[in-house]
Fold each of these.
Amino acid sequence: MATQRIELGLTASTPSGGGCGDGCGCGHAAAAAPTPSASEGLYDSELRVEGMTCAHCVRAVTEELDALDGVEVAGIDLNVGGVSIVRIRSNGTAGDDELAAAIDEAGYALVR
């Protein structure tokens, strides 16, 4: 299985309501504690998400994360059929519970 890296800059959008639909195989996902980044006042969080299979999955997750206050940018290392890595840079106002809820709204759960 190949790993595909997709770097996404988040912009304002209206969440689609979540879920990837037919044949996607929505799975489970886990939050790492945010750590301070080199940029002053920003925190980096890394989430492990299982079951993402396509670009639509990536869009569903990033749209939900984009809706959270304080999320600056997200990048996803898509691992089709395996555990994908979601990296988020935020100002720290979105906590682990809010990040997990956004992933859940997209149709996934954090690997704990």
Note: The helical segments are 55-66, 96-105.
Amino acid sequence: MKTNDVEILVIGAGIVGIATAYYLAVQHKRSRLLIVDEGQPMALTSAQSGENYRNWWPHPTMADYTNHSTDLMEEIARRSDNRIHMTRRGYLLVTREEKPEELLQQLYAGYGAQAEKLIRLHEGASRG
């Protein structure tokens, strides 16, 4: 691909970069795009995490964006026989706050109408 053939440049070949490029190519029929990353695709935080991802954001727009990106990655996994090793292991929020009401209000705001269905609270400490 020649430089002047590129219409869209996506910086980063992590979960969001790949999902963005895929979305533009499949949903918007954009073929002149290039993904640039100094390392291998999915080689840093996307590949070296605890196989979880953050989809909680204090603002509903970011939560929707992240959930949509995750949906796109799952579609890539389905269509490629999971060559990207996509898993759904969840996310754990831990805090030292004794009374985390403000943090929980942000969490509920971020999930919006889906909050009651998606948020599970476990109170009390376990000592072992």
Note: The chain has five helices and two strands.
Amino acid sequence: MINRNRLQVLLEKELQLFEETHPRSRELFERAKKSLLDGVPMNWMVKWAGSFPVFVKGGQGAHFTDVDGHRYIDFCLGDTGSMTGHAPEGAISAIKERINNGVTFMLPTEDSVWVGEELSRRFGLPYWQVAISATDANRFALRLARHITKRKYILVFNYSYHGTVDEAFITLQDGVPVRRHGNIGPQTDVTQTSKVVEFNDIEALEKALAPGDVAAVLAEPAMTNIGIIHPDPGYLEALREITRRTGTLLIYDETHTMCAGPGGYTGTYGLKPDMLTVGKAIGAGIPTAVYGFSEELAQRIRGTIDIEGADVGGIGGTLAGNALSMAAMRTTLENVLTPEAFDRNIALAERFCDGVESVIKENNLPWIVKRLGCRTEYWFRDTPPKNGGEAAAATDYELDRYMHLYALNRGILMTPFHNMALISSQTSAEDIDHHTNVFRESVELLLGARV
């Protein structure tokens, strides 16, 4: 239904508009090329719809302003890092107070005790440790899994993403495990460390775990990083049963699925993982993450780590568990990521989905909308993907770029990697409705129904 020539013309028009209206961002980008590789402080910051990234001046709540003075509704929210909204009122005062009284001591604070207790209450796992990022939390969890089980492999799902964990950069190509495209300078052959199967495929999971050589399955309980893919009915129960039967540890990465509720997908649906990791939003954007353990697993870990060599065991970090991170987690969990906030945000996410679905129906498009808690996404296909392979096959780079750039030029920032929107506790119904109107305009132009 999409005229590709028309799409290309519209995309060029939007690129021209973007460049004309963002001269200061362009100026800073050109200047940055002289000191920052590719003009950005982190390499994937180049992956935006425009010719260069928008440079931010500041943000409050669900909005931010760029250096050219444009104000945006932020549905990206730092790809979950700012799911709380920018500078959330409920957290800022405690964070400022902690900064005024020292941010890192390599010693615990009272806040760390409160955080551990609250995490146990929300997620149902009794013991916790702290890291700087979800990547580190996943990496440390995998180290512990190998340490305990003495097994060689870990297993992930096709097109999953768990940060920069080396073992997770593996995909299926025509059914054969291979290094994931784009993996930069892999330290080892990932097929020697990892197994990979499709999400929702019980038979493949059973076969992969049957030899008893997999230390842990690292998984999101619902996939998000290739788009929202829900587990089939009974799949997570089968995953838990098979992992227990084969002596394989089950680690849930809730960094994105935290959007499902105050205790993430695990708390919302009563899951029972052996370990759980979560980062980003729980510190209102302050770098931090945690990883938790079941009672049984904690008992297996105790006494197996040499205290004398604990500082060189490959787990931890000088800044992990620092006072600022602990204060940020406490105030965020206590005052921002509350049940009341999730109820409100999820209702707005439903409103977002309803708006997009109305445009799809009006124009008889073979597209769908998916939602997980306060996270939503629209797909350029007519049926929900069951796994990462199907989701990756549905990617349409040019169409994605057009939709993102059209929205950006009209004051809306979507997640750059796919058509995902996250709702914060400071997003308004008016913000949602503005997106619906802009989405409608972009679709009608694309289909030739609007000039």
Note: The radius of gyration is 22 Å.
Amino acid sequence: MASAPVRIADGATVRLLRPGDRVDVVAAERAGQPRVVAVAARVARVPEPEKVPGDGGALVVLSVPRETARALVGAGSVSRLAVTLC
């Protein structure tokens, strides 16, 4: 298992999460269908919101298999990420 810091586009959604929750992570691009990148990922940590506004969204740390961690990093660099609670 690996710890994957993931920036979720909707910061308000992240504030609903608690360590131990399970989420599916969905990547959405302007052109194309949304795709599921991680299924039933365990929320390991929800860092405090950033004091200085950044590029939007909020950070969450997920515990996932290494292969899924790599997919999350790749998807997060080109797509907006969202979560659904399981």
Note: Helices lie at 11-14, 66-78.
